[in-house]
């Protein structure tokens, strides 16, 4: 805004000199501002696009399938000749894998965060953090390969009755994949706890253990919980690990040894087959996509709310 | 622990010397130190586990890309010492000599591009590390050669003597490096030994090139708007909220959007352009956020100085703000592009065909990319494709490591403290 004022000033003197460039200059400035606004608006268009595409197909789907069947039926076989549309097996599969992944990522992620934030020296942290970030940067298809061809054969020796495609190895590997997300956000939260609180803790004679458990973690709790929720959202939306290692057979089960299908792996399965656009089988892809979108969006919003509502403010 | 015992600590305050040296206090201090050490160890465990997993993963990928093979050559399979042949042409020459061709015939063969192409299409000149004749030999293997068995690196090393003893007439034992030069020049194939990632590599180059062309101006433009131009109103707040939430949307949802809008509605079909547009939307929030951070780091005093010299808004933004933010923007773009290179799920939806045995030559070509190619190799039934997949993963990881290295160096080198 300041720039506009200055421009106006300089062009007034230009007019006195008979060199009026004001029109051209400000028109160019306005055009550029409009172009930049357009670029910024692409993201809103993306969201709108997602919402329009998903809702239109979802309405089409529910005009042919009853909502009651969708939520109560226990079989999900939309690609079969005699289809059944019960979302429960896909939801249970997603929950199962997410649960296993969080079982790894939450305690380990928090533990790693405590070590890196409180125990590790500055230099150690500078070395370890980028290496941990590599874990988050490895393409998920590589993790899928690793889960299917390395982890599963090892687990099969330990766990009796483990299927070749199973929720367990997919969930375990996914847990390590989201560990850096959980830990780096938790580290940020713990580093934000002011020095005065730590010193007050030590002043009261607290040991390092007591200080971390009773002062730092509680003070950073909102950030840590937000990191957990974000990790959960990533686990729900993860696709390639489950597609490769957990199989593609929807089953209403909570047995981690079983072959299952998640919402994401069903979307891949439906999209890589040849479903004509507009068919009920193709629409089922959009319905599952819509559920996935709503769930992950809800988790993301929740994580932001947790930070906003419960964040401790220190001066 | 001991914090919650104020009575004891006050007694320490009264008689400090006596209580610190007393055996009970010593024991208490030792216990506290033990608890601290145990806790430090416990919290280090997950870090250690994560690092070990990373190491094991790299190790597994590397060792899977080499395997022992027992091969029964049909009309080929000559092996040559390293000293005999350095280039593939020399090996082909030796192979043709071994097939009983005269030197004139061989010259004619090399002059005939079509014959040479066919030879290369069906034959693989490769470096075998260990054969019955000794280590490090070049051989020409043929797609019609019969592969009797395929044994993992360590397993085969342990059983080396038995395997050699069990060889039948005409068979030989090779240590086959699946990741070699010819891997880069061959296209997709249904035969594991003939499969390469040339088409996928060029597919990735095409897609990523377009992604940069689309997402760079949009991302930097959007960041400039939000940081330099945006008034504080509802629309701006909507843009901000929207951006934050888009970053958390699973990549496969972008795939659904791309499938409906680019592939079907705009009727671009399963082409390089549709893939690039989808991936651009996917990484746009990342680029915008990284660029905003870089732009925000440019101090206001520089902008004011520019205005003071009579510059317009855009002159200030383009000549002062952008040049000073460029290293941060480039780092952000590199990291975003690295993410786009590794994305598989959205491209499966916008129809990256699994089997494309040629490189794209226009934005409207069909294509395959590295992660898709790896995905299709992993899901093949033939167990030998596992080695091809791990060789592909090595290439993908090297590409990503180079990019991360670039980003790291740029951040180190050009960081400015204002």
Explain what the structure shows.
The complex is a heterodimer of chains A (315) and B (418). The longest helix of chain A is centred in the N-terminal third of the chain and has 41 residues, at 22-62. The two termini of chain A are 31 Å apart. Chain A has 2 domains: 2-45; 88-310, MetI-like (MetI-like fold). In chain A, helix 2 (22-62) packs across helix 13, helix 4 (88-119) crosses helix 7 and helix 5 runs antiparallel to helix 7. Helices cover 76% and strands 0% of the residues of chain A. The radius of gyration of chain A is 26 Å and the shape is globular. Chain A contains 13 helices and no strands. Mean pLDDT of chain A is 86; it is low at 1-20. By secondary structure, chain A is mainly alpha-helical. With 418 residues, chain B is mostly helical. Chain B folds into 3 domains: 2-64, no CATH class; 66-177, no CATH class; 198-414, MetI-like (MetI-like fold, Orthogonal Bundle), CATH 1.10.3720. Chain B is 65% helix and 10% strand. In chain B, the strands form 2 sheets. A 3-stranded antiparallel β-sheet of chain B has the order 5-1-6. In chain B, helix 15 packs antiparallel against helix 18. Chain B is globular and about 85 Å long. The two termini of chain B are 45 Å apart. In chain B, 41% of the residues are buried. Mean pLDDT of chain B is 84; it is low at 1-13. The interface between A and B is large, with 98 and 95 residues.
